[in-house]
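QA checklist item 7 of 12: single-chain prediction sanity check.
[x] sequence parsed
[x] length recorded as 116
[x] structure emitted
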Amino acid sequence: QVQLVESGGGLVQVGGSLRLACAASGSADTLYTMGWYRQAPGKQRDLVATIRVPGEPNYYANSVKGRFTISRDNAENTVYLQMSNLKTEDTATYYCNYLSFRGNYWGQGTQVTVSS
């Protein structure tokens, strides 16, 4: 069973930055994808960014390209989402995701609020 624990959310002003972290435990997979999704109130959960194995390109939603960067620390089993130049439309609950042949796992979510 893979467990994901997110941290780093909070309140920030427009143009500010935040870094989210997702610590994964319970996985011995060598091939998996980790990513970040977000869900605003009353809206569907949307994919923001994914990271897989070194050498493969990361994926970013068009709405965050050039502003968000996903990275991973394999030694710490942690994935990060560096968010810069934040906009009010980035306000949402951000969820960490882990996908492998064993299953699809979610974190509990961390709130990001961007105020004007």
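[x] summary fact logged: The two ends are 40 Å apart (CA to CA).
[ ] second reviewer sign-off
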